[in-house]
Task: inverse folding
């Protein structure tokens, strides 16, 4: 068991070095012999202090997630301020690594068993010439029939 943990930790350190050199997550996963979903699970284990897991593969986009995110009403009592900070820092680093990412990124909260998204509304506004969420900041939302930003 320790051998697996040691190998995962070593792979995570390799990821950090390659991320800082701005290699894509897809490239790093392939070089380390992981499928992308297993690789993102590994990164999540070491990247987040909380029960968060990064679900969405990085797709091309221009979003930089520069502003601090707001919380939609349907999720404001489900995430701690520390988790929100972790999400923001993670998407910022990922955006820098990939020179922009898709404006919608998905996460999963293992402890509370729900998926949610961070949406860079400023990038959506540029693409569609309208505001999806009545403000120009990223927002963390759960998409369901009752969501309200």
Result:
């Amino acid at each position: 068991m320790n051998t697996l943990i040691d190998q995962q930790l070593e792979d995570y350190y390799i990821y950090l070095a390659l991320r800082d050199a701005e290699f894509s997550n897809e490239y790093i996963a392939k070089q380390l012999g992981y499928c992308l979903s297993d690789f993102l699970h590994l990164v999540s284990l070491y990247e987040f202090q909380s029960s968060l897991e990064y679900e969405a593969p990085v797709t091309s986009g221009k979003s930089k997630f520069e502003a601090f995110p707001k919380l939609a009403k349907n999720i404001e009592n489900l995430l701690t301020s520390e988790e929100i900070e972790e999400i923001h820092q993670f998407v910022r680093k990922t955006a820098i690594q990939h020179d922009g990412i898709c404006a919608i990124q998905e996460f999963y909260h293992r402890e509370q068993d729900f998926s949610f998204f961070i949406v860079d509304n400023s990038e959506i506004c540029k693409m569609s010439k309208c505001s999806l969420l009545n403000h120009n900041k990223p927002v963390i939302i759960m998409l369901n029939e009752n969501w309200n930003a």
